[in-house]
């Protein structure tokens, strides 16, 4: 147990105002910032660098105890709300005092109480001219290897918008006022668009490397009958190229924008949706917005803001009347399962519950799927429990696992049904599982080979397209996204996705086997 409890730490020693300033400062001054704790102390006021560093260490320690179930959540929680009685401009000026332009690229402007940085923007194919400026929320306290931060974001309301392209579904000025703290559920709404049962897609990560041109990517998708694409971060030119093709799009909010978008609230999320997505593609093709990726492996500030950010995005979609066709989720890693065998005993890891439980509650309220990046490869390496490698590669005659009256012939059925059992154990039966990423690497060790990758890819594609469901849920087909579209494009647990690409950048097959989608 921590020597000092979180409640004690946040009591008389730290005021609520100081805690809000503290969390906001962490999002501005990341771990690579010179003199980080001196800058944070200056932003908080009345605290030394040593005191704010100790405060951070205690928060991290308490989070570990909370996640392990040793102590309950304290009543304290930074919500990102403005101080009582403070205007948007006053709140912004408070935040602005924390920002040193030496650490933030470009200039800083006010945008409804949210820090906004001016930056260059991608060419918008919809209006035929390059938009010279756009906005990006300021850097956060951390980033992930598979998440870029060059996403175009909302311009300041004070900036000249005469050259801004029209959004296919523009948020009107009145819609943002209709998103009060209502808990409107859309779980009973009929989903439209591209939520196909038993459908398969590919994931495209982006680490800043040179990707093929949008036209080349589009040609690869079409030639292999791939009808769904997941982008870990928005790539405007590619999104524009997809417009009108019928290819469904899942687009991700980078981990390092979650804190700022959560603080910015519904309006910040509305602008992100418009300027990152809907300016380039019709809303009918957008299927999901994923808020972060495997957030549990990031830091305390991102974890604390995840659900608030997801709710703000859902309310933004409600304001746009798109909440029945575009669903919000946040993909978790397969490590959230601590018990896998037998599948009926599936249990979430105690360390994952701080994230998993709120996501399940949100999914139940909004009709969103529970997204998970499943890695049979990592499961085999870490604990294959006596099962043959062929069982993980969908090969025939690989043996059978019996659980009650159910028989399992591959690890994917086991993992999906273990997730279903774990959700039921938490009181959330019936939530659909969507596999937001899965693959098998071609290099790295003795079981990571092109032949094994080809066997897994062939097996998973056949499994999805047969749409048989699982032994526990035989009538519920599963939507699956393969990681990754290109070898070396990043994404997922332990960078497995970087070595499990389906195609090379020239469009040739990285595994040498032509799998028909």
UniProtKB/TrEMBL annotation:
GO terms for molecular function: hydrolase activity, hydrolyzing O-glycosyl compounds. InterPro entries: GH (IPR017853), Glyco_hydro_17 (IPR000490), Glyco_hydro_17_plant (IPR044965), Homeodomain-like_sf (IPR009057), SANT/Myb (IPR001005), SANT_dom (IPR017884). Residues 119-192 are annotated as: Disordered. GO terms for cellular component: nucleus. Residues 129-178 have a biased composition (Low complexity). The keyword Transcription regulation applies. It is found in: Nucleus. GO terms for biological process: carbohydrate metabolic process. Belongs to the glycosyl hydrolase 17 family. This is Glucan endo-1,3-beta-D-glucosidase. It comes from Zingiber officinale (Ginger).
């Amino acid at each position: 147990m921590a020597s000092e409890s979180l409640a004690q730490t946040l009591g008389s020693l730290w005021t609520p105002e100081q805690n809000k300033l503290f969390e906001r400062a962490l999002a501005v001054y990341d771990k690579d910032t010179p003199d980080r704790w001196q800058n944070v102390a200056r932003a908080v006021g009345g605290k030394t660098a040593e005191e704010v560093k100790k405060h951070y260490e205690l928060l991290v320690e308490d989070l570990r105890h909370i996640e392990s179930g040793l102590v309950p959540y304290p009543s304290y929680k930074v919500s990102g709300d403005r101080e009582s009685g403070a205007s948007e401009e006053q709140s912004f000026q408070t935040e602005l005092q924390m920002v040193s332009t030496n650490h933030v690229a470009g200039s800083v402007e006010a945008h409804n109480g949210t820090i906004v940085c001016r930056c260059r923007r991608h060419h918008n194919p919809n209006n035929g001219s390059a938009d010279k400026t756009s906005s990006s929320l300021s850097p956060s306290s951390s980033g992930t290897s598979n998440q870029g931060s060059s996403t175009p974001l909302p311009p300041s309301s004070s900036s000249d918008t005469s050259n801004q392209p029209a959004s296919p579904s523009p948020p009107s000025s009145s819609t943002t006022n209709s998103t009060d703290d209502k808990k409107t559920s859309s779980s009973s709404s009929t989903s439209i668009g591209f939520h196909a049962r038993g459908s398969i897609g590919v994931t495209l990560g982006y680490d800043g490397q040179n990707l093929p041109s949008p036209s080349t990517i589009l040609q690869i998708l079409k030639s292999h009958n791939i009808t769904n694409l997941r982008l870990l971060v928005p790539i405007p030119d590619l999104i524009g190229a997809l417009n009108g093709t019928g290819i469904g799009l899942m687009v991700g909010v980078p981990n390092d924008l979650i804190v700022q978008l959560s603080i910015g609230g519904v309006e910040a999320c509305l602008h992100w949706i418009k300027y990152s997505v809907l300016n380039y593609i019709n809303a009918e093709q957008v299927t999901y917005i994923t808020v972060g990726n495997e957030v549990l492996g990031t830091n305390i500030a991102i974890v604390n803001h995840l659900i608030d950010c997801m709710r703000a995005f859902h309310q933004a979609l409600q304001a746009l009347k798109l909440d029945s066709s575009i669903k919000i989720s946040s993909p978790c890693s397969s490590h959230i399962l601590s018990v896998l065998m037998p599948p009926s005993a599936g249990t979430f890891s105690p360390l994952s519950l701080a994230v998993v439980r709120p996501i399940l509650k949100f999914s139940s309220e909004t009709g969103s799927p529970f997204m998970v990046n499943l890695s049979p490869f990592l499961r085999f390496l870490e604990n294959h429990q006596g099962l043959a490698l062929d069982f993980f590669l969908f090969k025939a005659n690989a043996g059978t696992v019996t659980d009650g009256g159910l028989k399992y012939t591959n690890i994917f059925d086991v993992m999906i049904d273990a997730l279903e059992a774990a959700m039921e154990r938490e009181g959330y039966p019936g939530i659909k599982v969507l596999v937001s990423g899965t693959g098998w690497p071609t290099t790295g060790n003795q079981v990571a080979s092109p032949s094994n990758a080809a066997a897994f890819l062939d097996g998973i594609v056949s499994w999805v397209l047969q749409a048989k469901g699982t032994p526990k849920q035989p009538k519920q087909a599963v939507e699956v996204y393969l990681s990754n579209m290109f070898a070396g494009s990043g994404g997922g647990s332990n960078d497995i996705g970087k070595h499990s690409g389906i195609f090379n950048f020239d469009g040739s097959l990285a595994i040498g086997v032509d799998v028909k989608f």
